[in-house]
Amino acid sequence: MRGDPDAVLIVEFAEEDQAENIRRLKQLGELMADLGFGWDHPKRKWGGVVELTEPSLQTGIASFAPRVSMS
């Protein structure tokens, strides 16, 4: 996570082919940029994709996610 976001969206790609997961992750980053989001933008459009491709970091997110409020 970066900074103090107003919201966090966790997206998991679970294709058997890791290259396909990486391709989809890159597409998501491009989509966020096309929507006007970026890490160098003002608060209203500040943000983007934080890529977590290391299994140990993914495990940490998986253990954190069930405690997140879904309101």
* Percentage of β-strand residues: under 5%
Oligomer: single chain
Helical percent range? Answer: 25-40%
In DSSP terms (H or I, runs of 4 or more residues), the helix count works out at 2
* Parts with pLDDT < 50 across at least 5 consecutive residues: none
The strand count comes to 0
Would you give an account of this structure?
By secondary structure, the chain is mostly helical. Helices cover 38% and strands 0% of the residues. The chain is built from two helices and no strands. The chain has helices at residues 18-34, 55-64. The chain is flat and about 35 Å long. The chain starts with 17 loop residues before the first helix and ends in a 7-residue tail after the last helix.
What's the topology here?
Layout: H1 18-34, H2 55-64
Summary tags:
single chain; 71 residues; mainly alpha
Question: Quick summary of this structure?
Answer:
With 71 residues, this protein is mainly α. It has 2 helices and no strands.
